[in-house]
Design goal:
CATH class: Alpha Beta
Shape: globular
Largest sheet: 7 strands, mixed
Number of strands: 9
Helix content: 25-40%
CATH architecture: Alpha-Beta Complex
Number of helices: 4
Number of domains: 1
Radius of gyration: 14 Å
Structural class: alpha+beta
Order of helices and strands: EEEEHEEEEEHHH
Strand content: 25-35%
């Protein structure tokens, strides 16, 4: 049983050159929007809340359903669960965290799959691969 559970979203947006993935950087670490699941909070609700809190994106569409993938155990027993959602519009803003007194992240980028593979740590590459297969597999259905 993992010590701490996080939930997050692989946020995607179509672009002229294909799907773009939202990455957030805290110090030197790139990740998808995610955070701790509160007691009695469903993981999907936590994931959507974290996207609002960390990136100021409100209108996410669970176009591919509520399927998820989880990371292997990391950092002393943590597990992170990720969903995939479409963000068709809205500007990413990195708001000040009340707990920290500064934004939780230093930078955001909408990146291609190849750039995401380059920036993300090894523990998140299976999540990216899964999300890409979900999104890319749906191209024929959505266009």
């Amino acid at each position: 049983m993992p010590g701490k559970r996080s939930a997050g979203v692989v946020v995607v947006r179509p672009g002229p050159a294909g799907w773009r993935y939202l990455l957030l950087r805290a110090f030197r670490n790139w990740d998808f929007p995610k955070g701790l699941v509160e007691p009695d909070e469903p993981p999907l609700a936590a994931a959507l809340r974290e996207v609002r809190e960390e990136a100021s994106l409100e209108s996410l569409e669970l176009r591919w359903g509520e399927a998820f993938r989880e990371t292997e155990l990391y950092a002393g027993g943590k597990v992170a669960r990720y969903y995939v959602a479409l963000s068709a519009s809205g500007d990413v803003r990195l708001p000040v965290s009340p707990e920290l007194g500064r934004p939780e992240h230093h930078e955001h980028r909408w990146v291609s799959y190849a750039e995401a593979r380059r920036l993300l740590p090894p523990r998140l590459q299976p999540i990216l691969d899964w999300a890409s297969s979900v999104v890319e597999g749906s191209l024929a259905e959505t266009h």
